Amino acid sequence: MDSFPELRNYYLSEMNSDLTLVVEGHRLPAHRFVLAAKSPVFNAMFYGDLMESTAREVDIREAPVDAFRVMLRYIYSERFEMDNDKDFQQAIQVFKLGHRYQLHRLVQYIEQYLITMLKKHNYIRLSDTITSASYDDFLRSRRFDNSLLSVIDNIATIYEFAVLYELTELVNACQRFIAKNSKLIVKKKSYLTESFDTMESILGLMQTNPAVIVQALQKIRDQHPGADMSQFERLVNFDTCSVDDIQSVRTIRLFSDDKLFDVLIAKYKTLQLEMNKVVKDRRA
């Protein structure tokens, strides 16, 4: 609820404006007392010993202008509103600005907004046989909520952001979402990032069969052909891998040929013991 609802009328208004904020070349009229009342950082800028305290025009650096407008709207109205409620990238940008200017209630709103978007969707039952190329048709045919697809497209970014800012509740919500939507995340390749630690963590959360994990590792190898992928070794459970899965692992060159040979020999011996047991039972 707005503390001073009349302040909304002053958002981006020239009326009684005593300050212009320049963000990415855009000139945004503002009011020192409003900004200072909501943000300790703005208060120090405009009523402290900093040069901004007497400046009529202040350049705001490293701030996307659309995200900055959303933050300003919140300052004047105490409402977190975006033009596109499925723009998770912008929501994260606004969070970072809120964190930068110590708008604690705003960052709490955004964390809860992201958690709500993760929790509101049921997972998609995706067939193992569907191809990456046809997944768009598959989804359209079932008329899934576009916000679910947007979450899937951005899950790596959201998860990485939640870990970076130590947002425990959001991290937990991401982990549950990843576990439930493993197959589609792999089909969409939305786990791919520049961070090996993030990709390893996401794949480690997936509750799916070995073939899907191997497929994901192959995509990582394709994206980073010369990189050391040894940290992903823990993700391959040879006890549940088929011979075909092991052959696929070999193409990734995640393990040495000697290691894979030993795995195949062990599987052959296990299979031979099982066959001998079946034969013995039939003769009994």
Summarize the structure.
Helix content is 58%, strand content 5%. It has 13 helices and three strands, in the order E-E-H-H-E-H-H-H-H-H-H-H-H-H-H-H.
Which terms summarize this structure?
284 residues; mainly alpha; three-stranded mixed sheet; 13 helices; 3 strands; 5% strand; elongated
What would you say this structure looks like, in words?
The protein is mainly α and 284 residues long. It has 13 helices and three strands; from the N terminus they run ββααβααααααααααα. A hairpin with a 2-residue loop joins strand 1 and strand 2. The radius of gyration is 26 Å and the shape is elongated. The protein starts with 18 loop residues before the first strand and ends with a helix. Residues 126-130 have low confidence and may be disordered.
Strand and helix layout:
Elements lengths: L18 E5 L2 E5 L1 H7 L1 H8 L9 E4 L4 H13 L10 H13 L3 H16 L15 H8 L3 H19 L3 H13 L1 H7 L7 H10 L4 H14 L19 H10 L4 H27 L1
Assembly state (oligomeric): single chain
Radius of gyration over all CA atoms, rounded: 26 Å
Q: Tell how many strands the DSSP assignment holds.
A: 3
**Widest β-sheet, arrangement of strands:** 2-1-3
Per DSSP, what share of the residues sits in E-state strands of 2 or more residues?
under 5%
